[in-house]
């Protein structure tokens, strides 16, 4: 029986055309794959020929003859070499293949997500940078962001790290409120949690926004290379100051830009005020300043918090006293006031006699007062004088007497600082998280960057007098007795501490450098001795050789230069 043929599927004319196109496309792809090396070499030869023609056209006519002769000599040399023509042909094909390869174009512009972010930022700025009267505004709803934005950079997460904004000339860029609105909007749209720097170019109507890297927190307390009377408050951005000092950062040594505070008679900001929240690093700052001041002078510490953060300084050489109680604080600050007066009188009499000031009147004295507002509350409750009143003489006349006062307190107690402390502490620091309003209330100027809410201890801002506001990171100076702190940083602090004083020397009254603990002198309420007491000896313990000044009616009563401790 004959086999029946299979039924045929009817094929229309359109199906035949589509099938023919598919076959032709497949054949073309296969031919392209087979002929790809030849196509690449042909493209390269064409590019080489075009480059040669351009070079020939650019060659002056008087040099074409020598160039043609040199080319002919090269071709003849290749032809005469063994296997020269073959090697020359292979080299030519290799150069042509390299020249004719298909290069993947490098993407230079932003991707789709970045374009969407830039467009959203452009639309958000329209209400601030446009007016209805502008015939061709830079910022308009649905407009092109490329006309207003340039120099844009993104990080790995697609967030802006740098952007240059062109704004219209009628924008009031000289008004702080208008600037603050733009900076706040850019900060919110570009991503919170980072510190932004805004640079306004009012002449060119340009605003540059850049993200600042965090300041390093790995620099520990150490000996810094500074001139006499200079103290390193911390470190800032490289372009903020014109000076660097070598520092030990971990196991490596590098140059870091410091924030230097100049003290002494030639300083325009002889006293300092540091403000922060609990745990912001103000105590670490005072410890760092004490360690830097001890090699060149004496230090008196008055601690109002009563937590024993300065116990490591007790009994050390150069540390006059570490007072934590109200009575001791009053006695120590009263001694500091009389010591300032004594230095002024001694220096004045020496100048009148044509001699330099005595050595004990020129030895730097640093008074560190932590949380004086606590003592003010205690003194008011106990009916005793406010310790801040005793700071008036060192603050007013300390610069001429080589006396420096450093006051640290918290934001919630800032209103309890008296007017004298606020007026004469022209070097200001704000540490820890703070709002722009809080920074401005302390420094007298708003921060030049956007403060962040999560900062490490010791991070903040500094301003010397009427200078610029600088970012600041205080060197890590923890309490060496704090077991929670880094062992490396604790050992760094211990290495900087001076030797402990001998017991006999610490109990000798009349020492020009003061004592740590001694018996209370005569007088009610722990007040220093009267005006008939002899002048103290010099810093090395030798007897005073200068003239004993007669009582002066206009001069305050002088006291012993030794600090008086707390009662009991």
UniProtKB/TrEMBL annotation:
Highest taxon, organism lineage? Bacteria
| Transmembrane keyword on record | yes
Q: Where is the composition biased (Low complexity)?
A: 551-568
Q: Where is this region: Disordered?
A: 438-463, 495-568
What residue ranges are annotated as transmembrane?
68-98
Entry's InterPro entries? P-loop_NTPase
- Keywords from the UniProt entry: Membrane, Transmembrane, Transmembrane helix
Name of this protein: FtsK domain-containing protein
Record organism: Streptomyces marianii
């Amino acid at each position: 029986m004959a086999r029946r043929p299979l039924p045929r599927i009817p094929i229309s004319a359109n199906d035949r055309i589509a099938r023919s196109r598919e076959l032709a496309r497949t054949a073309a792809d296969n031919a392209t794959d087979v002929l790809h090396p030849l196509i690449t070499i042909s493209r390269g030869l064409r590019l080489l020929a075009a480059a040669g023609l351009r070079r020939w056209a650019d060659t002056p006519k008087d040099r074409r003859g020598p160039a043609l002769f040199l080319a002919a000599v090269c071709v003849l040399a290749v032809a005469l070499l063994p296997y020269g023509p073959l090697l020359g042909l292979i080299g030519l094909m290799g150069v042509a293949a390299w020249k004719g390869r298909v290069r993947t174009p490098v993407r230079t512009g932003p991707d789709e997500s970045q374009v969407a972010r830039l467009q959203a930022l452009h639309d958000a700025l329209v209400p601030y940078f446009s007016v209805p009267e502008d015939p061709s505004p830079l910022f308009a709803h649905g407009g092109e962001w490329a006309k207003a934005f340039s120099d844009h950079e993104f990080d790995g997460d697609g967030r802006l790290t740098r952007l240059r904004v062109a704004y219209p000339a009628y924008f009031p860029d000289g008004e702080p409120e208008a600037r603050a609105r733009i900076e706040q909007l850019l900060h919110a749209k570009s991503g919170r949690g980072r510190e932004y720097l805004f640079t306004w170019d009012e002449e060119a109507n340009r605003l540059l926004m850049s993200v600042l890297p965090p300041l390093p927190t790995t620099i520990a307390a150490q000996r810094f290379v500074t001139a006499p009377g200079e103290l390193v408050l911390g470190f800032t951005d490289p372009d903020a100051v014109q000076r660097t000092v070598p520092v030990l950062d971990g196991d490596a040594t590098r140059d870091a830009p410091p924030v230097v505070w100049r003290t002494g008679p030639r300083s325009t900001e002889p006293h300092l005020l540091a403000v922060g929240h609990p745990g912001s690093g103000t105590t670490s700052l005072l410890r760092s300043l004490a360690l830097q001041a001890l090699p060149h002078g004496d230090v008196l510490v008055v601690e109002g918090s009563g937590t024993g953060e300065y116990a490591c300084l007790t009994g050390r050489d150069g540390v006059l006293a570490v007072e934590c109680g109200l009575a001791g604080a009053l006695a120590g600050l009263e001694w500091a006031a009389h010591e300032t007066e004594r230095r002024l009188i001694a220096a004045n009499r020496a100048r009148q006699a044509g001699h330099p000031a005595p050595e004990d009147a020129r030895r730097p004295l640093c008074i560190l007062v932590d949380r004086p507002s606590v003592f003010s509350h205690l003194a008011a409750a106990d009916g005793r004088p406010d310790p801040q009143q005793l700071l008036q003489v060192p603050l007013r006349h300390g610069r001429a007497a080589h006396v420096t006062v450093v006051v640290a307190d918290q934001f919630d107690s800032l209103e309890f600082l008296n007017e004298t402390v606020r007026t004469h502490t022209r070097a200001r620091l704000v540490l820890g998280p703070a709002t722009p309003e809080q920074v401005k209330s302390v420094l007298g100027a708003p921060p030049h960057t956007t403060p962040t809410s999560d900062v490490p201890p010791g991070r903040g801002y500094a301003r010397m007098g009427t200078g610029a506001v600088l970012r600041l990171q205080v060197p890590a100076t923890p309490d060496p007795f704090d077991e929670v702190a880094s062992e490396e940083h604790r050992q760094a602090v211990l290495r900087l501490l001076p030797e402990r004083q001998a017991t006999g020397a610490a109990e000798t009254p009349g020492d020009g450098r003061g004592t740590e603990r001694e018996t209370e002198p005569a007088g009610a309420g722990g007040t220093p001795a009267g005006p008939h007491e002899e002048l103290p000896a010099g810093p090395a313990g030798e007897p005073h050789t200068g003239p004993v000044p007669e009582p002066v009616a206009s001069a305050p009563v002088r006291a012993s230069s030794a600090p008086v401790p707390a009662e009991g």
